[in-house]
Amino acid sequence: MLLYKCPRLYLRALCEGQEAPPAHPMPHVSHSQFNWKLFWQFLRPHLLLLGAAIVLALGAALVNVQIPLLLGQLVEVVAKYTRDHVGSFVSESRNLSTHLLLLYGIQGLLTFGYLVLLSHIGERMAVDMRRALFSSLLRQDIAFFDAKRTGQLVSRLTTDVQEFKSSFKLVISQGLRSCTQVAGCLVSLSLLSPRLTLLLLIATPTLMGVGTLMGSGLRKLSRLCQEQVARATGVADEALGNVRTVRAFAMEQREEERYRAELECCRLKAEELGRGIALFQGLSNIAFNCMVLGTLFVGGSLVAGQQLTGGDLMSFLVASQTVQRSMANLSVLFGQVVRGLSAGTRVFEYMALSPCIPLSGGHSLPREQLHGSVTFQDVSFSYPCRPGFEVLKDFTLMLPPGKIVALVGQSGGGKTTVASLLERFYDPTAGMVTLDGHDLRTLDPSWLRGQVIGFISQEPVLFGTTIMENIRFGKLEASDEEVYAAAREANAHEFICSFPDGYDTIVGERGTTLSGGQKQRLAIARALIKQPTVLILDEATSALDSESEQVVQEALNRASAGRTVLVIAHRLSTVRAAHCIVVMANGRVCEAGTHEKLLRKGGLYAELIRRQALDAPLSSAPPPETLRDPQDRWPRT
Ligand SMILES: Nc1ncnc2c1ncn2[C@@H]1O[C@H](COP(=O)(O)OP(=O)(O)OP(=O)(O)O)[C@@H](O)[C@H]1O
Asked: What integer best gives the mean pLDDT of the chain?
């Protein structure tokens, strides 16, 4: 297991002759506890400001603790004046009133200060967390995304981080303040009347214990609730992202119903959580009111017994109110903290995941020594999310340098899977894929994908930016001239120049403002700009009409020259000129050879050709001379 997580250990295991570990288990997402270690990493840079905020919050709370005592003294002055009618009430009370006004002012300033600081810290932390989570998600294995919905992941980046940030700010502002006030007031109260304070001290821990028990249940509910919200977001995201397909099948109603059903589940779960929180708050209110009533009752009897003055009782009452308000705040805060901790757990959960296939690491080969010879040696493979289902079984294939090899065969036979293994989106369960004799697992994946392999799929995905930036996606440091050259090579320059904005044309989300053929040619330019040694064409022309296909095919032919090319095709007419055609069935190679050789053999390929009724219109140019003699270089079947 450890070997998976660390490619270096894996390599050492190979060197020491240990058996290669079975391929990538599904990255494990544990429903773990809140990750305090990660939280600390985000908090650490802000410790100084946080310390300042805490000091200000504590200051505000301590100022607040003094207010009941001064109010009690003011009441004493009122009582004295009412009783004795001696002197001026205004002059007697001036000092106390000024003192109180000053405290109110200081409290306001301190509150302003710590709230500004907390807002600053909260926003910075949220940005850091989103960046770290996004970066971690981008690094996860492709297998991770097979098992996840985009909506769920996006929700972690948005809602969960937001929820966590709000809770964090509330805990420091309200929570810290309420706790300090409760503590400060309890000290004041114990000075005024130890007996009354004892009453409060007995009741408080009992209530806290009950609260903790209820809290763990609420936390579970909150987690379920947020997961359901993420599911609903996923449904909306999918429907909106595929709105053309939804419209084409007139499935708006169905999508609305799916979303409504998910929302209904959200509502039920949220209401259950709401009821739980309401019950918790209701019970705590009753308990705290009873506490105040009890305090008044016992305090009143102490005043009657002249063990307490009227002013002291007033101070006691105001301080008890502060304690009560703070406790109520804490109970409201509790729900938020429960939600915040769940949200934080979910955010840190994905952040702590380490991919089985790292983005980089291992060695790269100098370009001048790179030949582009690829082999699949006895490769077996199951997708991690379907472990019992072997897609490739002892699959062996050789792509000689500079040659074109076509993979054909039944749908679902594993052709795209072969391409995915070559790109190292997954690692084989058994056997190995090599480039120039090097196991792909020993090579740097970022070098492999960024510089060696170019991939062009059936449905090219473009980004909603300019044509220039889309082509440059293949090589960020490419000059304008390199972009133009790649576009020319891909037969795209002409149509790009015909647009009023030329290379600065915005292509719309996923390239919706372009035709299929235009998108495909941009994808070819994007793949060619990095001058890949190995090119994978996964049914690159199958979605195009015959006119576009011709232009795109021409570009592909040009792009294929001198490169090792793996062509995956359904339409057999497009691969007749390949140096070798490999027929796949049930995850195995069952035939291989040139078009003519396979036709003569009269096996599966000939049968496929017959089915596609391509015997007659075989009109494209005959394969180059070099193709006529495949000899025994081709894969064993
Ligand atoms: N991400 C995935 N997770 C699990 N199973 C998958 C995944 N992708 C493909 N498969 C399964 O692997 C098998 C081979 O799929 P693959 O896409 O490689 O076939 P293919 O030959 O390219 O098919 P087609 O010609 O229809 O594109 C299929 O049974 C498919 O259901």
From this structure: 81
Measured in whole angstroms, the distance separating CA 177 from the mean position of its chain's CA atoms is: 34
Nearest CA to ligand 1 atom 14: 414
Q: Tell me the C-alpha distance between 502 and 185, whole Å.
A: 72
Return the residue whose CA atom lies nearest to atom 30 of ligand 1.
412
Closest C-alpha to 72, from 178, 193, 194, 177: 193
Ligand 1 near 387 CB (within 6 A): no
**Residue 394 C-alpha to ligand 1 middle, in angstroms?**
17
Lowest mean pLDDT among 294-303, 342-351, 357-366, 467-476: 294-303
Q: Is 416 in the pocket of ligand 1 (CB under 6 A)?
A: yes
Work out which ligand 1 atom sits closest to the CA atom of 568.
22
Q: What pTM, to 2 d.p., does this model score?
A: 0.72
ipTM > 0.95, yes or no: yes
Instruction: Give the model confidence (pLDDT) of 399-427 as tens digits.
Output: 999 899 999 988 888 899 999 999 999 99
Residue 590: phi and psi, rounded to 5, are -110, -20
Of 380, 395, 407, 417, best ligand 1 pocket probe by most atoms within 8 Å of the beta carbon: 417
Distance 415 CA to ligand 1 centre (A): 8
In 3-state terms the chain splits into helix, strand, coil percentages (rounded to 5) of 65, 10, 25
- The per-residue b/e assignment along 559-570, b for 16 or more CB within 10 angstroms, e otherwise, is bbeebbbbbbbb
Q: Where are the alpha helices (DSSP H) in 397-515?
A: 415-422, 445-447, 467-472, 480-489, 493-498
Best CA proximity match to 142, nearest among 465, 536, 519, 422? 422
Packing angle, helices 89-139 and 47-84, rounded to 10: 160
| Any atom of ligand 1 within 6 Å of the Cβ of 420 | no
Instruction: List the Cα angle 635/636/637 in 5-degree steps.
Output: 110
Does the C-beta of 421 come closer than 6 Å to ligand 1?
no
Alpha helix ranges (H) inside 140-193: 142-146, 150-155, 161-170, 176-192
Evaluate whether 136 touches 350 at the Cβ level (below 8 Å): yes
CA quadruple 560, 555, 515, 410: dihedral sign = negative
First-to-final CA distance of the chain: 34
The protein residue whose alpha carbon is closest to atom 26 in ligand 1 is: 411
Q: For ligand 1, atom 16, which residue shows the shortest CA distance?
A: 414
Atom 8 in ligand 1: residue holding the nearest Cα: 417
d(CA 292, CA 535): 78
Gyration radius of the chain over CA positions = 36
| Residue whose token pair is 């001026």 | 88
Distance CA 4, CA 541 (A): 37
* pLDDT tens digits along 117-153: 999 999 999 999 999 999 999 999 999 998 888 878 8
458 lines ligand 1 (CB under 6 A): no
* Pocket-testing residue among 393, 415, 583, 608, ligand 1, by greatest number of atoms within 8 A of Cβ: 415
